[in-house]
Amino acid sequence: MNSCGRLARVFDRSSGLDLLFCLVKPRTTCRQCPQTTPSLARGQSTAANHTPGSDTDDKPRLRAVDLARKIRGEKSKTRETAPPMSAQQRRVMELKRFSVQLQNVHPNVLAKHLHRSVLYQDKDVVIVNKPYGVPVADNSDVTSITSVLPVLSKMMDGMKMKSDSQLIPCLGLEKDSTGTLLLARRDEVVEHVLALNRNNKVERKYWVITVGVPVPSEGLIDIPIIEREVTGPQPHYKMALSPLYRLNDEGDGVTKVRSHRQAHPAVTKYRVLDSSSGCSLVELQPFTGVKHQMRVHMAFALGCPILGDHKYSHWSKLAPQKLPERVLGKLGIEQSKVRHLPLHLHARQLTMPGSSQADVNVSCPLPKYFTQTLGRLHITLPDEKQM
User: Fold this and answer.
1) What is the tally of helices (H) and strands (E) in the chain?
2) Among the residues of the chain, which ranges form H helices?
3) Neighbours of 186 (CB within 10 A)
4) Is the pTM of this model over 0.85?
5) Are the CB atoms for 342 and 98 separated by under 8 Å?
6) HEC profile of 29-85
7) Does the bond joining 107 to the residue before it have cis omega, within 30 degrees of 0?
8) pLDDT tens-digit profile of 58-91?
9) Burial of 111 (0-12, 13-18, 19+ CB in 10 A)
């Protein structure tokens, strides 16, 4: 037997308790022992294979919880040493985060979001609250609403394996607009809704924030719209006005001109709900469905572009919207950061004949960024009872 008493007890089968004690607490392993017995279990041999006297024996292992605490501590130190952000910087960070939060979102995440955003449903139609920045049509690299409608229809049908339900967009919305989006459950419902819309039996009202105050405070804009090419350093296409009248040579009247063959009739009713700080909350009701109709009518017919409409705030160039200093101060941003402002165009209300005798009348709550802007501009929301 070896002169080392501890080593002798290790090889004694009747004293296995001593062997387990040495292996569970490797720091107490006898430094005189050259190595452990080969007959140890896998977990025991791993603990016994530490080199005697090494740093591994002297230092405890770093647990996951300790590592998490260390990282949180480093982050807190970074926040303490970083200079405080100004109100303008915080505002810009909010806008940046908002503008990218739904870009390239996973289809299942978008489907769940739309499922939680259902405003109305019956056996024929479903109305959801469309989020900002998500296209309706499936014609881009980002996730679209159309691409997730099969998943959404399954969710609304209780995730049945053999469900034949479907959802089809009827009346679309622009990518950067928000609000009521009408979906049909069958192809024949789509045709019925489109026929109602052609006969002006589908009433859609939008709320927009404009830069400027429209004069007069309410009216009807009846000016055709045409797509034109803008030449220059950045050639591009924009929708533009194609008026049927022009001022006569004397300047005291108008003369009717020949309509352009490619121009589309466009009619928009508007009403100013409130104004403050050089901006207005305006209700729009389009009677036609020309591309970018409301944006063009507000920018070029009334001279009051929609806040965040960087495309139609200029005619001859592609550049962020130019805002007055007063508006910049109220919004808490600099002109160099205006490009982060989202389009303030919200589909507020949708009314149409229902499948029963009662009409479908759905109002959609304003998105958070819209209400925040109203608050910064001190624009008051109208009383719904007086609408």
Assistant:
1) 12, 14
2) 5-11, 16-24, 42-48, 55-58, 64-81, 87-100, 107-116, 145-156, 187-198, 293-296, 325-331, 368-377
3) 15
4) no
5) yes
6) CCCCCCCCCCCCCHHHHHHHCCCCCCHHHHCCCCCHHHHHHHHHHHHHHHHHHCCCC
7) no
8) 556 667 778 778 878 877 776 666 567 666 677 6
9) buried
